[in-house]
Structure formats: structure tokens, C-alpha cells
Specification:
85% helix, mainly alpha, elongated, 0% strand
Length: 110
């Protein structure tokens, strides 16, 4: 095992511990916990055995399996970022609506 693999697996194990802790403290739901648990386990497998991605690379016409992993990782990060921004915008809009409602309600009382 190379140093990079060792460091990556060690980092993922720490993230797994944090994920389990968050679930136990009820900071995340079961479905979110299972999603992240599955993802981190797949990451450990791919980091430990990078050759496992070669068949997928060949199917997709990419030379190296880790390239496929990097491409999909980048796509996942952009999708996650899109979801976060969308959720923040929705939350901002909802807060604005609540503040408007409370402001109108308070102005009618005076």
C-alpha cells in the first residue's frame, strides 16, 4: 500500500467515525447516513484496490480506472454543490416570506 492510499483510507475512516457519530447524535437521518456510509465504503475499496475500476474505464473508453473515478467524483461534487445552492436559495426565500408575514402581522397590531 502506498503512502497516498494509507493517508486516503485513514482520512476516510475518520470521516466514517464522524458520520457514525452524527447519526448517533441524530444530526442526520437514516437515509443520509446509509448514503454516506455506502459512499465511504466504496471509496475505501476503490482506494485500496484501484484496479477494480479498470473494467468500467474500458467500457467508457478511458485509459485508466482512476481517471473514471476522478471524473465521477467531480460530477458528484458539482451536483452536491448545485443541491446545496438550490436549498440555500429556497431557505432564503422562505425566511424572506416569514419575515414579511411577521412584519405585516406586527404592523397591524400597532
Amino acid at each position: 500500500m502506498t503512502l497516498v492510499q494509507f493517508l486516503a483510507i485513514g482520512s476516510v475512516i475518520l470521516i466514517l467515525i464522524k458520520t457514525i457519530s452524527d447519526f448517533q447524535k441524530k444530526k442526520i437521518t437514516l437515509s443520509i447516513f446509509l448514503f454516506w456510509l455506502s459512499l465511504w465504503l466504496v471509496v475505501i475499496i476503490v482506494v485500496a484496490q484501484p484496479r477494480i475500476t479498470l473494467p468500467l474505464a474500458k467500457i467508457l473508453g478511458v485509459e485508466r480506472g482512476m481517471d473514471v473515478t476522478v471524473y465521477f467524483s467531480i460530477l458528484f461534487i458539482f451536483f452536491a454543490l448545485f443541491r446545496i445552492v438550490t436549498t440555500l436559495e429556497k431557505t432564503k426565500w422562505e425566511i424572506t416570506e416569514i419575515v414579511r408575514h411577521l412584519s405585516l402581522k406586527n404592523s397591524k397590531k400597532k
